[in-house]
Specification:
Number of helices: 12
CATH topology: TIM Barrel
Bound molecules: flavin mononucleotide
Low-confidence stretches: none
Oligomer: single chain
Mean pLDDT: 95
Strand content: 15-25%
CATH class: Alpha Beta
Distance between the termini: 21 Å
Amino acid sequence: MTTTTGLLGPLTSPYSLAGLDLRTRFVMAPMTRFRSPGGVPTADVAAYYRRRAESGIGLIVTEGVPVGHRSATHETTVPRMTAGAAEAGWRRVTSEVHEAGGRIAAQLWHLGSEREPVDGYPSWTPATMSTANIDVIVGSFAESARVAVRAGFDAVEIHGAHGYLLDEFLWPRTNRRTDRYGADRAAFPAEVVRAVRAELPQQMPLIVRFSQFKERDYSARIASSPTELASLLTPLVSAGADVLHASQRRFWEPAFDGSPLNLAGWAKEITGLPTITVGSVGLSRTFPVSAQMDRLVAGLTGGEYDLVALGRILLGNPDWVRLADDGRFDEIHDYHKSHEDTYF
Ligand SMILES: Cc1cc2nc3c(=O)[nH]c(=O)nc-3n(C[C@H](O)[C@H](O)[C@H](O)COP(=O)(O)O)c2cc1C
């Protein structure tokens, strides 16, 4: 399914993302699933991603994968990006996705203050991190990027969204530092981008995901104007980001007053980079014949964004792209009926 003949129209057209050839404009959004005991992705995890690749997703972004440093997470069933068993598990995942004709990016993650203190080991935040700690975490992202390259990933995405560590530096409410990491809120995320970029082959895209909202505060904003957004994104681009993934809860919502552009649209307007939009795409059963579909396609063809990520709808419908493109609406499951207790 690589033509533009079905209901999804130009969303199924191929695209070259910073040199990486994708079959369609659809991205699988990163979604934590807690299915990797001891931090090691299992055969089930490989099959889960393979099924999404088989149905015409152009690029899969893995669930958030904490970097190796022990401050990155307290979770024991999220997969890690570390050498050894986890790397071998990821190699199986990337092979299966490639066999199915797909492409896959690893999302590298540090939970910041969302990491629960375990065994007396504290969670790290902008308020508590020394510059030495910052250097350590930059190094940990770089090390995990090295592992991702060895494991066969096609791209790396840095998780700079939703209130986790890097986003806590971008957000003025949590970054109250008085040193250079406070004066320039993008400084630490940009150091991570630069260090990761240095580990990737030249042709491998580096994606940065960012958001205004936080998981614990949907009204939060890292930028209250396009100018402020530019001050945060420009250093990330200078440091080597190739693609920006603008996380919104509803893709059709304007990012700022006075313009219909969504967050991905503003990111593209500011930086000129390719962007990924996301947020409640496909959640109504007849989405391909809806006003929201018209809005989505208008944004794509008008150059507001280049790729479209699907989250919840893919959990219960690994083959949503094919079913929706063919208009087989009766076979599409509502996302909320299936997404936590099934894993297939
Ligand atoms: C179960 C679940 C887990 C998620 N885990 C992550 C994650 O690990 N990293 C991330 O950046 N976003 C995560 N998200 C957010 C999704 O990537 C996506 O942005 C969000 O679900 C909105 O897209 P949707 O409306 O198509 O579901 C998660 C969402 C869900 C539903």
